[in-house]
Design a protein that fits this description.
The radius of gyration is 19 Å and the shape is globular. The chain is an all-alpha fold and 224 residues long. It is built from eight helices and no strands. The chain has two domains: 61 residues; 157 residues, no CATH class.
Length: 224
C-alpha cells in the first residue's frame, strides 16, 4: 500500500476507535466484559493505533503544502503543556467516571474555571501548532487527526454528560466554557490563580524544557 494511504488508514482507525464510546456498542461491550477490562482493552487498542500512526508517519514521503511556521511550536507549547498538566492534576467533572463531581458546591475550580476541557485544549494547541509548523501533507494528516479528535471530543463529552447528569450538568455548563476564558470574559466565572497553583504550571514548564532539550533526539527534528 502507498505509504501516505497507510498513514490515512492508521489515522482513520485511531479516530474510529474514539467514536466507539459514543455508540451503543460501548454499552454492549461493558456489559459483556466489565468496565475495567473494557477500559484496558480500549487503552491498548488506542496505544496500538498511535504506534501504527507513528510508524506510518515516518514512512510517508515529504510533500510540502506551504512554508512551515517553524517557530510557532516553541511559542505555543508552554501554554499547551501547562493546560495538560493542570488539567490532569485538577478534578474535572468532564472526565470519565467523574460525573459525581457535578454535585459539588463548586464543581468548577482551578483550571476548570478557564475551560472545562483543559487537556483537550492542550492537545489542540499542540496538534494545531505542529500542523502549521510542518507545512506538509503527512504532518497535516497525522497531527490533524489529533486536532480533530480533541475538538470533537470536547463536544461529545459535553453531550454525554448532559444526557447522563441533567440539571447538575446544566449548572456546571453555566459556570464554565469550552473555549478558554469565555466564561470568565462573560462574567459567569472568575480567574483564580491561587486555585490553579504552582505545581501544575511548574510541571508543564518542566515538560516543555525537557522536550526542548530532547526533541531532536526523540523525533529527529529540531524544535526551533
Amino acid at each position: 500500500m502507498d505509504p501516505t494511504a497507510t498513514l490515512v488508514l492508521a489515522c482513520a482507525v485511531f479516530l474510529a476507535l474514539h467514536v466507539l464510546p459514543s455508540t451503543p456498542l460501548r454499552g454492549a461491550l461493558v456489559a459483556r466484559l466489565g468496565e475495567g477490562p473494557y477500559t484496558g482493552l480500549f487503552s491498548l487498542a488506542t496505544l496500538a493505533a498511535i504506534v501504527w500512526m507513528a510508524f506510518a508517519y515516518r514512512a510517508a514521503p515529504y510533500t510540502p503544502l506551504w512554508p512551515g511556521l517553524r517557530h510557532l511550536p516553541p511559542a505555543v507549547m508552554p501554554f499547551s503543556l501547562v493546560l495538560i498538566a493542570c488539567g490532569v492534576l485538577t478534578p474535572n467533572p468532564t472526565a470519565v467516571a467523574a460525573g459525581r463531581l457535578l454535585a459539588n458546591a463548586e464543581p468548577a475550580r482551578g483550571i476548570i474555571r478557564v475551560t472545562r476541557h483543559p487537556v483537550m485544549w492542550g492537545i489542540m494547541l499542540w496538534a494545531g501548532a505542529h500542523v502549521l509548523a510542518r507545512g506538509e501533507l503527512k504532518a497535516t494528516i497525522f497531527f490533524g487527526s489529533f486536532l480533530l479528535l480533541a475538538a470533537a471530543g470536547t463536544r461529545l463529552q459535553d453531550l454525554r454528560k448532559a444526557k447522563a447528569h441533567g440539571e447538575d450538568w446544566q449548572r456546571f455548563a453555566a459556570l464554565t466554557s469550552n473555549i478558554p476564558f469565555v466564561a470568565i470574559a462573560q462574567g459567569r466565572n472568575r480567574f483564580a490563580a491561587g486555585e490553579i497553583g504552582v505545581v501544575g504550571v511548574a510541571f508543564g514548564l518542566l515538560l516543555y524544557g525537557g522536550l526542548l532539550l530532547s526533541h531532536t533526539w526523540l523525533f529527529g527534528v529540531r524544535p526551533y
